[in-house]
Fold this protein.
Amino acid sequence: MGRIRYAILVAGCATLAGSVLAGVACGGGTAGDDKAASGDAAGDGLTVHVEGGVGDATATNRDSGCAADTQVDVHNCGICGHDCLGGACQAGVCQPVVLATVPYPGAVAAFAIDTTSVYWTNSSDGSDGGTLLANGVVSKCPLAGCTGHSTTLATGQAVPEGIWVTGPTLYWVDYNVGAIMQCSVDCNNDATVLHKFPDLGRKGFAANATEAFISYEGAIEQCPTSGCGTLTTFASGQTPTDIALGAAGVTWIDLGTLTGGKAVVYVDGGVMTCPVGGCDGGPTALATGLSYPSSLFVNGMTAYWAQGNSVVACSVTGCSGTPTTIVSLPAGNGVAGVAVDATDVYFGDMSGNGPPYSWEIRKCALTGCPDGSTLLSSTQYVSGGPVLEVAVDTTRIYFVSGDNSQILALAK
């Protein structure tokens, strides 16, 4: 997953308790539906807007042998057998559950999951004479949620940013120090430096059990995960950002050429790939001529990424330079945070004519969604922006609230 850290929101942004939550996580309409139900379904003062109509689900389910009220039953939400996995069921729709809360001014900078836990970084929350304080933290929490306090893995970090987990090892960027850090998933403040750079911008990173790949100044660099004093250039002539490891090799986003003039922009971006064993012959271009591709995700033999207001896909063996568009949103919406399972693509959508704006979580079948993508959840932000990351496992979708203060999970 690409890791992008935006400015912390101003005070007053909505948290989950004040969010507008919507969706059809358990079947129903799409974002284009004109039917809706709203109300204080839980009696807690929270008004919920639900896309899709609501019928006499209880009567229908009795006919099929299920007597549950699928409008409110957390174990049979929307349809019999659909469990909200800790979230509430409102008007037949599962709602997100809060796994961890990281309040302002620290807030979540980036997160990652494995089969047991969610891990995150939160940045320093102050400065001394213009120098950022080294009080950023790396933490974790069980996927079931933190019933008490989260577990602190590393302290004293100077602006920790993106975070990745590979097997038993965590990696993160400590921006102000200019280093890629590593530590076990049960780290006890004993993190070590994988590699320290002369300067450090946003870094793309991916690793397997033995090798790490890092984007840096015109190249993809490679080094052993056991530690690297000297980097080996894996692919040169690039302006790389996100990196993903897949069945066929290393795939990354190349922003392209930086132009000058009144507006400094990148042009002719692309998505590139090489076998893990080496890139001596130069990378293979899956797609070129792109404008700011982002949020790369590789699932098996297919690469997915965000392109403007669309999610597109291309086989990692090539697609004749023409990726397939899976879903496009209306002009003015921005797609980010792509994640994929066996049947669907899940993504974030920054939309609205605000402030405030909406940070939406949506899904679409991998075969496409001609009737529109499904809105799963929506929270508000006023300025800056949310953590543009989405993760999935076999049962749930994971994301960060619009004000970056809560890590949320939503039953599929």
Notes: Residues 360 and 378 are 4 Å apart (CA to CA). The first strand starts at residue 36 and ends at 39. Confidence is low (pLDDT under 50) at residues 1-57.
